[in-house]
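Input record (one chain):
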Amino acid sequence: MERIIEILIFIASELTKKKQIDEVDLKMLLNKGYSRSEISVALSWIVEKLEDGKSTLFQNLHSGNKSFRYLHEAEKDLFSPDGWQELNQLYSLGILPLEVMETFIDRAMLIGLRNINAQQVRRFIAGLIFETNIHQNIFPPNNEDIIN
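The corresponding structure, as predicted from the sequence alone:
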């Protein structure tokens, strides 16, 4: 599921440069090793979110919203630099609503996680977006690399 998040990031990034989703070069994704089914899942998710009319998907792209969340002193150890960058990218592209971002930060603080990297962020967000069992899928069984 993390690979689908990577595809969503690619498509959203491309949409910042182009006006229509049909202008995104999906062959580039195939060349990078993503399967047709992974690309299809990502596109289906995008279309579903855009059609429901209530989604905030890509809202920040079109609104010009350049807001950025700064970490409180107590939160600074939660993320590795790449993990924090990934979380902010997902938010700024509109893939991740602010409420979900805040929930993720709050939960990580409550259970004492540390050094959450980009892959772990994608795993968590994929669990939320695709409604998998996130309690089993957020972090690998051996959390020693995150909990210090």
